[in-house]
Amino acid sequence: QPVLLPFGRSPDEFAKGICASIDGGLWIITQDRVLKWNENRIDDLGPSPLGQSSIITMMEMKSGCLAVGTLEQGLFLIFPHRGVVHFKRARDFPSNWVRALCEDREGTLWAGTGSSGLVALCPSRVASLSAPDDWQGANVLSITHSHSGSIWVGTEGAGLYRFHAGQWKQFGESDGLSNPFVWSVSEDTQNRLWVGTWGGGLYFEHSNRFERVPGLEDLTAPVLALLHGRNGVTWIGTDTGLLRYQAGAITRLGEKQGLMLPDVRALVEAPDGTLWFGMMGGGLGRLQNGSVKQFRTTDGLSSDFVQCLHFDTNGALWIGTYGGGLSRFKDGRFSVIGADQGLPNNFICDIEQDDLGNFWISSHGGIFNLQQSELNQCADGQTQNVHPLVYGTGDGMPTLECSGGFQPASCRTEGGQLWFPTTKGLVGINPNDIKVNQLPPPVLIETLLVDGLPVSGPGSPDDSLRIPPGRHRFEFRYTGLSFVAPQKVSFKYRLQGLEREWTDAGTKRTIIYSYIPPGKYQFQVMACNSDGVWDYEAATLAFMVQPFFWQTWWFYLGAGLSAAALLSGGALWFARRRMRHKLDRLERQRAIERERARIARDIHDNFGASLTRISLLSQSAQGELQNSGQAVAQLNRIYDTSRELTRALDEIVWAVSPEHDTLDSLGSYLGKFAQDYLGPLAVRCRLDLPTQLPSWPVTAEVRHNLFLALKETLHNVVKHAAASEISISLTTGADIFTLQVRDNGCGFDPAAVPGEPRREPGRPASGNGLTNMRRRLEKIGGRCEIQSVPGRGTEVKFIVPVSLESPDSTPSRPSTPETGASSNSPGVTKK
Known about the structure:
By secondary structure, this protein is of the alpha+beta class. Helices cover 19% and strands 35% of the residues. The chain has 6 helices and 54 strands. The strands form 13 sheets. Strands 52-53-51-50-49-54 form a 6-stranded mixed β-sheet, covered by helices on one side. Helix 4 (663-678) packs parallel to helix 5. It is elongated and about 175 Å long. The model is unreliable at 457-462, 756-767 and 806-831 (pLDDT under 50).
């Protein structure tokens, strides 16, 4: 049902604009008034500032401010009972045509203009104060607050300004100031205003006029710092040193008194009366009980260029330097806090403290706030970094660069508000009315670039992006959705699956990985707004880097199993090899033991029997001394036995000597033995041996058994064959050699020869000794072949394989002589 609101004061009054209010009422703007209706009641909030402007849009903001966009007069912000702020093109607003208004979650007002795009207006946390003439374009250098509530401002070339009760007044040459470069302004305990100039002297203010300070009429040095101390003493810092002024009496402290580079820029008095002063280039000075001491970087000071000094509530001295950050002097030791520890800037202009003890520091990077406890913890080494709350251009400052190097360079009003000079005017902060943005900024991962090309996907762990295998460059781009000082939004990130800890990215909005190994990952980012409030619910982008087949788990498993099998096989092979070597050593040991046993048997059988025979023949010869014939016979037997014993010893020595372990030595010895054996028996011996035999190894056991087999063969030929000629030949094959014995005796039928009992080694063989020869050859791995035909002689072959024990003893076929004989019938020497 329509309701008529009786708001008009006259019949001609009409509503130009209307919008809803947060409390459920209505805002109404007529051609003359601003009204608010609520519960059938209309409140008149004053005359309308719009005049004849046409309203396009209007809305109430969360702060209770009414925003009105017009067609031709820009934007109006109406604060009930507090005034109006008007934004138009003449005041740096881009357009006078405002078509749409919207307030976001953080209180930023967005204005859509007719032809100049989108404009964001954020609530200012820093108050700006500027003279009507904009300081005549000069920089503001020094500021002080007087007992009357006035603010006095010194400028670089525009004289002195006073702000009182909302009114500005400028003082210059006509007011007694002969120099417009006011570098220091301060009020003493007697409420007198002191004004120091650059080369124009030092002045008192009296009845809005300025006069030279008595006793300092001839002062021409620039006055850079003023401090009113105890007992009416005023300390004056100049570029040539320090002055002490009291009731017209002046004491000077400069280069003549031992100060180095005495350009004094800062002064502070300790509770015990000690004066500390900072110099631009001379470091920190201390005047105590009439003696002066200077502290430089060699003593631990961060910089020799000191711009400000401040004693905190704990009695520690804080030193602000030009380029060296903050230094703290406590208990005779300096500690340094700079940009590496989290300060926004190393050029410190001035230091103030609020009622809670928090530090407010002006710098070339804006004004920042730090808790005293946090600063002390960092200076004491308990923490590595500080986390200042920084106020910059996004918070309402006209510039980031504050003024420093002049004292006083800040002031505190009775209400607790802090004022700092900048190169573009004054800025004020009320520490008791700091509004912290409690809304953390949500994070948006904008895109992922792989090798410079964007990829996209749902980004969930169940359905993630799939990156092809290979070495890629990954670039993650993200942002934090905060429009209150967006340049101060900071981030932390981690690549889950590769990193466990979060990495502080600062204000960077791009992270690059030059290589990410195959696997599943989640890139996570969280953001912090300009007031240090974090959004711990991180934005996530899931993706998978696909592996090559050799980077898959099944390939690693197969490779692992193969490696394990290879290692196991290698270990088994080495174990078996070691076992073989061990068995070979044992076999050689057994062979040595068998050889030793054989030698012992031969010595026992041959030497024992022969020596016993010699002993018996010697006793018998003693009994036949009267019978010379019998004695001679006995002596001949002793002689024959001794020769046989010598020959047996020679055989034993030859068999065991290592220098005869070659085929060539074996052939030479066997040929010589056959000739020596058959020569006395009128049996012709024909030798058919190669001129050069390969240097194959032949063990002592092989030589011994082959020698005994040959010896037994020759014995059988001499005893049974009735031969007149014996032919002995030695031939070689690929890995065997053959010793052949042929005679022209009566021969026999091998099938008709019965076996015989085994006999002891070394005894002469009978006709039944053929089996022993075969056994001897079998014992050394060879074989004995006997061919005989009655009436045609006998042929015996001893075929022996060669066992190679080292690469150096590799057998080789003997070279074929140029005569064309085969390798099995090389050239021979015949006898």
